[in-house]
Every structure is written in structure tokens, then in C-alpha cells.
Amino acid sequence: MDGALRRGLGLVTAALGLIMSAPLLAVISLAIKLDSRGPILFRHERLGLGGRRFWLSKFRTMRQVNAPTSVWADDNHARITRIGKWLRRFWLDELPQFVNILRGATSG
């Protein structure tokens, strides 16, 4: 698939995804704020195509800690919030990534 066509399709899909999920995004944001202290979004620097750095955004599903955290999922299991458990189960924590697509952070 041509790069411009692929980018255009990604833009349209991401824009529609954000518009259609806007009410759900608002409800999830409120639920995260009411469930635990800290920011609504979790941001993590990642490497994209060609080694280009970008910030990946997801809904926060874990409590923040001041201590070092483990890279192993099982070690951090106790930090998952009540809302985070459901967000992860249904992959709703991934919805903010539509913004990354609009910004071109994940395009190839």
C-alpha cells in the first residue's frame, strides 16, 4: 500500500475513532480520577520507525509509586487500580493512541 494512502487511511480511522469514542474517553478519564490519585494518562517514550522517538500515551492503569518498578508484569500486579483492571481487560487503556496516529508518531 502506498505510504500516502496508508497515512490518509490512518488519519481518517484515528479521527473517526476519537470522535466516536469521545463520550467513553470522558467517562474513563473521570473514573480514573475518582479511583486513584495521579495523572489520567500514562506517557512512555518509545522508538518508532527508523529509531524516531515518540511519546506513547495510554490511560493510566496502575498506582504511581516513588520506588523503582519492575519490568516484569507479575511484579507490578498489586499496583493495578480497580478501574485499570477493566481497562486492560477490554483494551480500553489503548484508546488514547488514536492521538499518536493523528500526530504521525506511529506511522511508517
Care to give the gist of this entry?
This protein is α+β, with helices and mostly antiparallel strands.
Structure in words:
The structure is a single chain. This protein is α+β, with helices and mostly antiparallel strands and 108 residues long. The chain has one domain (3-103). The chain is built from three helices and two strands. It has a two-stranded antiparallel sheet with strand order 1-2. Helix 1 packs antiparallel against helix 2 and helix 1 (3-35) packs antiparallel against helix 3 (97-103). It is globular.
Number of helices: 3
Helix content: 40-55%
Low-confidence runs of at least 5 consecutive residues: none
Q: Radius of gyration, rounded?
A: 15 Å
Largest sheet: 2 strands, antiparallel
Instruction: Tell me the number of structural domains.
Output: 1
Element string (H = helix, E = strand): HEEHH
Tally of strands: 2
Average pLDDT confidence is 87
* Spatial strand sequence of the major β-sheet: 1-2
Spatial separation of the terminal alpha carbons: 11 Å
What is the structural class?
A: alpha+beta
